[in-house]
Design brief:
The chain is about 75% helix and about 0% strand. It is mainly alpha-helical and about 325 residues long.
């Protein structure tokens, strides 16, 4: 009973961080892991909890190093494989992440989370048919949840199937009113050039998750294309502030740093956008970096350079159909 209670407390503290992004909850987990109260947990459980804390703190190299040092844990724990896969994916090492997601599925073929993470990595790698297959499996394993339908909609969106994407996003919204479902329907309307229709969806997503720079910037994009310039600038500024606030709690990922450069470019701050890009060192071929470079070049009027960066982004896995549908590149 004591072990169950300790485990439940640690998991609750991690969930509180997930919900609030307040660092105090991670510190409480760290303190608990140093105390005698966790002595009855197995060594493997303590390693996994520490890795979860480091993952949530953005210390992805620490997570990779810690888990790879314990092959026996990885050979027996689906959760360890998933966490290592997510840490690698968050570091831009998607190909390496695939192996651990597959290991997690081997350990638990009925894990919808493992199939979902595998599908998400495949989607980012541009392997759209394979990713769709994984998301269909998620809908089979978790038919009452929105996750599989929402991600399947994303896979269909990436191949340019706006109608199929919208249909699955609507099913996801029927399953549960969630920020991702509203956001995804907004994105579908945006790529359909129906900017006015997209705005209420983005606003609903923001109302439910006001600290999402992604949702706020999406609203800004629609406002900009409707020539509501001041409202768009205000939203881009808000998105930038949200990223800066996040950076005070943990290191920004490469993807988040790329978004920062894009927001600066769309605000017209060219020198700051260039500096933000120059400060990013993805280390490996990275579609987010190439796409951000294209956006920055576009807003600087360097069209030829933007086109070259877009080719690099597609080569790195960025969906070509999204570029073709993107109003900024029409």
């Amino acid at each position: 009973n004591h072990v169950i209670a300790v485990r439940a407390r640690l998991e609750t503290l991690i969930r509180l961080f997930d919900q609030t992004h307040e660092p105090q909850w991670l510190e409480k987990v760290r303190d608990a892991l140093k105390s005698n109260t966790v002595a009855r947990l197995s060594d493997e459980e303590r390693i996994l909890f520490r890795a979860k804390v480091d993952f949530n703190a953005g210390l992805l190299p620490d997570v990779v190093q810690a888990l790879q040092a314990h092959p026996a844990l990885l050979a027996s724990s689906k959760d360890a494989d998933l966490l290592l896969g997510r840490a690698l994916a968050g570091s831009g090492e998607l190909e390496r992440a695939l192996a651990y997601y597959l290991d997690a599925i081997r350990l638990n073929p009925e894990s919808w989370r493992a199939h979902n993470d595998l599908g998400s990595a495949l989607l980012r790698l541009g392997r759209l048919k394979e990713s769709a297959q994984q998301f269909v499996r998620v809908t089979e394993l978790k038919p009452d949840a929105p996750t599989g339908y929402s991600n399947l909609g994303s896979a269909l969106l990436d191949v340019g199937d706006l109608a199929g994407a919208r249909r699955n996003f609507e099913i996801a919204l029927q399953r549960a009113a969630s920020p991702p479902a509203y956001y995804s329907l907004g994105v579908t309307a945006y790529y359909s050039r129906d900017y006015a229709t997209s705005i209420p969806f983005f606003e609903s997503a923001i109302q439910m998750r006001p600290n999402s720079d992604v949702y706020v910037a999406a609203l800004a994009d629609s406002l900009r294309h409707l020539h509501r310039t001041e409202s768009a600038r205000s939203s881009y500024t808000r998105a930038l502030i949200l990223l800066e606030q996040l950076a005070r709690t943990r290191p920004l990922t490469v993807e988040e740093q790329c978004r920062r450069a894009i927001f600066l470019a769309k605000l017209g701050n060219r020198s700051a956008a260039d500096s933000a890009l120059n400060a990013i060192a993805p280390g490996v071929e990275n579609q987010d970096f190439d796409y951000a470079s294209a956006i920055v070049a576009l807003f600087e009027g360097r069209i030829a350079a933007a086109n070259l960066y877009l080719k690099d982004a597609v080569h790195a896995g960025y969906p070509e159909m999204l570029i073709r549908m993107d109003p900024d590149f029409r």
